[in-house]
Amino acid sequence: GSLPKWVVNKSSQFLAPKAMKKMYKACLKYPEWKQKHDPHFKPWLFPEQSRLPALALSELSLQHADSLENIDESSLAESKEDRGDGSDEDSLT
């Protein structure tokens, strides 16, 4: 569904900055926390430390971005259910 524009505007004005402040504060505390919690475990730097199961390369497939850009949706009609009950189009009448 789609959100009314006013909801998006309000959330970007108030919720997003609040979330960023919390994230910033958490990031400042991270070095101290990491020193107490397995400080040498850094799988983002040393992949051999990863505890996740390895994925076989044969299971991966390439998907080229240029094939995604040429999707023609011009013949599709948007129904009221696709827009959701609270869409902006419904509130104009």
From TrEMBL:
Output the superkingdom of the source species: Eukaryota
Q: Which segments carry the region annotation Disordered?
A: 69-93
Name it. STA10 protein
Give the originating organism: Ptilonorhynchus violaceus
Q: What is the lineage of its organism?
A: Eukaryota, Metazoa, Chordata, Craniata, Vertebrata
